[in-house]
Amino acid sequence: MVAATKKTHRRSFAMALCAALILLPGTALSTVAAADPVMTTERNLNANRALHTALIQGAALPALPALALGLAWLHQRRRRNVLRAELRNKEQENALALRDLEHSRRRFQQLLDNAGDAIFFIAPDSGHLLQVNRQVENLLGYSETEIRALSLAELFPGHHERRYLRLMRRVVRNGYAEEPNLHFRTKNGQRLVGAVHARLGHLDDAQVVHGVVRDVTRVRLSEQQLRRKNRELTLLNEIARRIAGHRGLDELLQAILEDVINVFEAQGGGIYLVHHSDGTLQLAAHRNIEPEVLADIQKVPQGTGMAARVAASGRPQSSADLSNDLRLRSQAIRTAGWRGFQAIPLSAKDQTVGVLFLYNRDQRVLSRDEVHLLMAIGHQVGSAIQGAELYEALRWQNRLTEASNRELQRSRRQLRENLDQAQRHNRELARLEAMKSNFMALASHELRTPLTCILSGAQFLVQRLESRLDAEETQLLAALVQGGERLEAIVRDMLEAARLESQSLYLAREKIDLCQILHEVHGEFRAVLADRRLDFKLHSVPEGAELTGDAYHLQRTFARLLENAVKYTPSGGGIEIRSRLRCFAELHGDKESLSRFSPVFFQETLGGPLIQVTVADNGIGIEDEEQLRVFDKFYEVGDINAHSTSRTGFGGKGFGLGLTLVKGMVEAHGGMVWVESGPAGGSAFHVLLPVMLAAATEDQGT
C-alpha cells in the first residue's frame, strides 16, 4: 500500500515535471523562434512532440539534469541573439542620427555663410566674438581665426568700443538692442559703418548674443552729403533772406558771418570792406578774434597780407598752417595760434567790395566743394554790400533833399518871421532911438555940461589956490574934484549901458593880448591890493590863444570884475585870476545850469574854441537866489545901509551898473558870464569868450 502510494507520488511528480518541461521548452523555443527567423515552426513542433512522448513513456526521467542544462544553454543563446539584434538596431539608428546631424551642421554653415548680412555670435559677458560667417570676413578683411584673436580696441576705433559694450549690456538687460551707427576698423585700416541688430539667444548649450550687421557706410556717407547739401542750401536761403530783409549793413554782415562760421564749423573769422578811395581794408564784422589780433588787423593797407591779396586778385587763398606761412604779415596771429585759414573775395559785377575769412587752430583746409560754396556766398554778400552802398547813397541823397526842403521851408518861415521881426525892430528902434536921443540930450546937457563946468572950475582952483589954502580948505577942494570925477564916471557908465542896451556902442575888431590886459588890470589895482593886504594871484594864460574884439572895453570889463572882488573881500583875504581853454562840447554837460545866465549863448554859439577867465575871491559870497539879479541894472547885494560908499573899501557900494556893463560887454563879444558861490563863502565870476588859435589867426591874417 505504501509502495503503491510512493509509486503513485513518483508518477505524479514525473507528470508534473514533464508538464513543466513541456511548457518551459515550448515557451523558450517559441521565444527563440520569434527572435531567430532560422528556426521554423515545424522543428518546434517535432521537438515538442518527441519530448512529450519521452516524458509520457517515462524513458527521459534519468536524463532530466542534462536536459535542464541544455534548455538553460539554449535560453542564454537565444537571449544573446536578441541583445545582438537590438545592438545592431541601435548602431544603425546612431549612424543615421550622425548622418542627419552632419547634414544639419553643413546645412546650417551653408545658410550662415550664404546669408546676405554679416552675422556674429558674441559672448555676452565679455563681448568677444565667438563665431562669424563669411560675410563678416568679407566686410572686415580678417579671417575667422584672426577675428577671434582681435581685441575690442583693435576692432572698434575710439569711443565706438564703449558704444559696442553698452550695446551688449542693453541686449543682456532687454533681450534685444540696436545700434544704427557702429564703426568698425577693417584690416586695411579703413572705417566701416554698420547697423547692428542684436538679440539674446543660444549656441549649443551656451547663451550668446546673435548680432546681424549691415554695411551702411555708403548710406551714411550719402546721408552726410545730403545733410551737407541741405545745410548749404539752408545757409544760402538764410543769407538771401537776411539780405532781403536787412536794415543795416553792419548788422547784416555780423549775422552772415555768424551763420558761415557755424555751418563750416570754424573757430572764428571776419569780414573786411574795401575802401575804394585808397584800397585799404577795414574790418566791419568779426567773431572770436583776440583783442591783440583785432588791434593788429583792424585796418589792412592795400597789398599787405593775404586778405589784401585776395581783394586785389579777386581769387580765394588758403593756408593749412599760418605759423609757417611766409605770406602772413601779422605776428599777433602767429602768437594767437591760428593755423588753418581760408579767405574768399566778396565781389559784385567783377568788382571786389570785401573779403571774408575763416580760421581754425588746427591744420585744416576746406574741400573744393566748401570753397565753391563760400564763393557763392561771397557773390551773394558782395551784391548785398554793393546794394547797401547804393541804398545808403540813395538814402543820403534823400536825406539831403529832405533837409534842403526843410531848410527851404525853414528859410521861408524865417524870412517871414524876419520880416515881421524887422518891422517890430524898426518900431522898437524908432522908440529906442527916441529914448536914446532924449537920454543923450539929458546926459549931455542936463548932467554932463554942468558937471564939466563944476569939475573944470574945481580943477582950476586946485591949480591956482593950492599954495594959498590951508589943509582943511585943500581937503574940501580935493573932495570936490573927487566927487566930480565920480559923478563923471557914473554918467559915462550910464551912457555905455544905454548904448549896449540899444546895441549902438561901437566895438573895435582887433587882436587882443589877454595876458597883457590882465597884467594892466593888475597894475591898476596894485596899490589898492597892497593897502587892503589882499593876496592876489594872476595865473598864466594858455599859450596860442588870442581874442578878437575891443581891447579898451574888455580891459574895463576885467577891471570892473576885479573892483567887485576887492569891494566884497575883507582885508587879508585872497583874490585870484585864472584862465583855461575849453571846448563847446564840455559846456553841454552844464547847459541846464548855465543857460539861465545866457540862453542866447547856447543857441547862437557855433562851437569853436573858448577861453574861460575866472575872477575868484574868498569874500562874503552870493546867495543862489541873488546870482542872477546881480547882473541887473542898479542892483547891489545886501542892504544899502550895511556898506560904505568907498570904491575900493570892503563893502563899498556902487551905482549898480558895474556887473550890468560886464554882462553886456561880454555878450557883445559873443561870450557869456556867470557866477558861482560856495556855502563857505567866496564868489567866482567866470567869463567865457570865443578865441582864435594862433595858427588860425596867422592864416586869416595872411
UniProtKB/TrEMBL annotation:
SUPFAM superfamilies: ATPase domain of HSP90 chaperone/DNA topoisomerase II/histidine kinase, GAF domain-like, Homodimeric domain of signal transducing histidine kinase, PYP-like sensor domain (PAS domain). InterPro entries: GAF, GAF-like_dom_sf, HATPase_C_sf, HATPase_dom, His_kinase_dom, HisK_dim/P_dom, HisK_dim/P_sf, PAS. It comes from the Bacteria. Keywords: Coiled coil, Kinase, Phosphoprotein, Signal, Transferase. It catalyses: ATP + protein L-histidine = ADP + protein N-phospho-L-histidine. Residues 1-30 form the signal peptide. CDD domains: HATPase, HisKA, PAS. GO terms for molecular function: histidine phosphotransfer kinase activity; phosphorelay sensor kinase activity. Its EC number is 2.7.13.3. GO terms for cellular component: plasma membrane. Residues 442-693 form the Histidine kinase domain. Residues 104-175 form the PAS domain. It is an enzyme of class 2 (transferase). Residues 80-107, 398-482 form a coiled coil. PANTHER family: OSMOSENSING HISTIDINE PROTEIN KINASE SLN1 (PTHR43047:SF72), TWO-COMPONENT HISTIDINE PROTEIN KINASE (PTHR43047). This is histidine kinase. It comes from Geoalkalibacter ferrihydriticus DSM 17813. The lineage of its organism: Bacteria, Pseudomonadati, Thermodesulfobacteriota, Desulfuromonadia, Desulfuromonadales.
